[in-house]
Amino acid sequence: MLRRLYNWTLSLAARKSAEYWLAFISFVESSVFLVPADVLFLPMALARPQRAYRYAFIATLFSVLGGVAGWYLGYHAYELIAKPVLEFYGKLESFEHLRNSTSADTILLLLITSGLSHLPPIKVVTILSGAAGVNIWLFIASAIVARGARFYILAWALKKYGEPIRHFIEKRLGLLAGLGAALLIALFLLVKYVQF
User: Fold this and answer.
1) Cα(153)–Cα(23) distance, rounded to whole angstroms?
2) For residue 192, pLDDT beyond 70
3) Rounded to an integer, what is the distance from CA 183 to the centroid of its chain?
4) pLDDT of 180
5) Residue 132 per-residue DSSP state
6) How does DSSP assign 122-158, residue by residue?
């Protein structure tokens, strides 16, 4: 089922309505959808490199709006809507652990790492941010930085290097983003716990 969903999402890139689909997938990815917007963004930016930054803007904007929807799910409708969604994806137990043991600072750090590298999945962190009562404006600013950085860096790389970078990105994006996330976590811990 996951492979069919992935292939369907990828097929949307060839349609005339691809930009609308990119907006839709970016929105729902941040709150409830399993397949990341990159699956649609990458082929669209490769097919029309002159529009790569436009696509990055669309993906960033709608990803942030979807994140706000996820925040509202966590804040206003956790029991009714968010909990069943997390249970469906098998993320409820880890979510409850995070919710009960994580500070607002750590949640914002998770938002940045998930926005950059999908670690943990962005939908989990947006709902967690609302359920934990993270300030909505701080949440929005963090989401803009994280998601914007991801899509604009991808747009720049695809525009500059084209098809060869696509294979590199597809194979190593998780690793590179994970390394970047680990660096952010290390910097956060250093600033928080080391006295200068």
Assistant:
1) 18
2) no
3) 18
4) 59
5) T
6) HHHHHHHHHHTT--HHHHHHHHHHHHHHHHHHHHHHH
State the Cα–Cα distance between residues 12 and 95, nearest whole angstrom: 31
Query: 39: which 2 tokens?
Result: 């699956």
Report d(CA 26, CA 89) in Å as an integer.
18
Model pTM score: 0.74
Burial letters 95-132, b for 16+ CB under 10 A, else e: beebeeeeeeeebbbbbbbbbbbbbbbbbbbbbbbbbb
Report whether 163 contacts 46 (CB < 8 A). Answer: yes
Report the interhelical angle of 163-193 vs 136-161 (nearest 10°): 150
111-166 pLDDT per residue, tens = 777 766 666 677 778 888 888 888 999 889 988 988 898 899 889 888 887 767 66
Among 144, 190, 192, 169, residue whose Cα is nearest residue 42: 169
